[in-house]
Write a structure and sequence with these properties.
Helices cover 69% and strands 0% of the residues. It is built from 2 helices and no strands. The N and C termini lie far apart (87 Å).
């Protein structure tokens, strides 16, 4: 066989393999799994404290941005 014939056969086999693999991944049976991050369980007091800290940080930032 000529080298071009061997190359053509190998390329056709590689293409068929790629099509088979992509068809298997797209059409195969699979179950989607949702990633869920665990949300920390915060009490009302912790939330209120975080809100106060955030408001204080915003006010400090705004004071620093005002022209003197």
């Amino acid at each position: 066989m000529a080298p071009t014939t061997v190359t053509t056969i190998l390329l056709v086999l590689a293409g068929l393999g790629l099509l088979t693999l992509s068809g298997w991944t797209w059409l195969g049976s699979w179950q989607p799994a949702a990633r869920r991050e665990r949300v920390p369980d915060l009490s009302g007091a912790e939330v209120e404290q975080a809100v106060r800290q955030m408001r204080a940080a915003i006010e400090a930032y705004e004071r620093s941005q005002r022209p003197h």
